[in-house]
Amino acid sequence: MNITPRLSAPAALRNRGPILDVLRRVLPEAGLVLEVASGTGEHVAHFAAALPGLDWQPTEPTPEGRASIDSWAEGLPNLRRALPLDAAAPGWPVERADAVLCSNMIHIAPWAAAEGLFAGAARLLPTGGLLALYGPFRFAGHVLERGNADFDASLRARNPEWGLRLAEDVAALGARCGFGAPEVVAMPASNRMLLFRRAP
């Protein structure tokens, strides 16, 4: 009996539309978009189908994840086969990109993954190139929404190195890696997109 490798995440189906709305505004018309931590592949398949002028390179550290991504990619000529990538590693399997997208990763990984993400994006992107982050964030001086507060507590209980990141810390990390201050876009379900541009 054949078992399909295609995985599905309900959250990805809910948020892919709002994320796409932002990407339509901020991505270039052509070029290569590297997605770090593509998960099931539902996001990148949706974006590749909607934005056929762009080439999309998905990545995921696990073989199961890459198999799922490649299953979702069937029939999409602008969606490349998934590559293994550890965001925290000093070497990435891609040498250049016009934009980098990462959704729902830095809060379920050690801070070293965020540091690696920014360092890697800085190596790959041209001046003005986009690094787009999506997910839940904390903001200094603001009380977390109840759902995000519960989520943050559950993440920290599972792993003390995990948890919702302070947006100001992420922005400071971006500045150290050569990015300008982010544009912050409010998203449904108390999420945000932080849009960074590679500085000259």
UniProtKB/TrEMBL annotation:
Matches recorded under SUPFAM superfamilies: S-adenosyl-L-methionine-dependent methyltransferases
| Listed name of the protein | DUF938 domain-containing protein
Q: According to the lineage, what is the superkingdom? A: Bacteria
Q: Which organism is it from?
A: Teichococcus globiformis
User: Pfam families in the record, alphabetically?
Assistant: DUF938
